[in-house]
Write a structure and sequence with these properties.
This protein is an all-alpha fold and about 80 residues long. Helices cover about 70% and strands about 0% of the residues. Helix 2 crosses helix 3. The relative contact order is 0.11.
Length: about 80
């Protein structure tokens, strides 16, 4: 099982990719596309790529840790 982002230096052209995504989100805002639709579309595009790169178990593990961290930040440990 390979690691996910955060386990080393960013991949080549990472900053360029982040800037392109930020520009796309700004354009979607300007076009009146809602944030919920934007988030859903990003996840729909991202999840298959993450699974292809890292495998389903690694992705599930990261999302599990993310869910725990979000719940803890909300003051409700153990609740997603």
């Amino acid at each position: 099982m390979s690691g996910l982002a955060g386990s080393g230096p960013p991949p080549p052209r990472f900053a360029e990719a982040v800037e392109a995504i930020e520009r796309a989100l700004i354009a979607l805002d300007a076009a009146g596309v809602g944030r919920e639709a934007q988030a859903a579309a990003l996840l729909a595009a991202l999840l298959p790529r993450l699974v292809a790169l890292h495998g389903p178990h690694a992705v599930a593990a990261v999302f599990g840790r993310l869910a725990s961290a979000v719940a803890e930040q909300a003051g409700t440990p153990g609740r997603a």
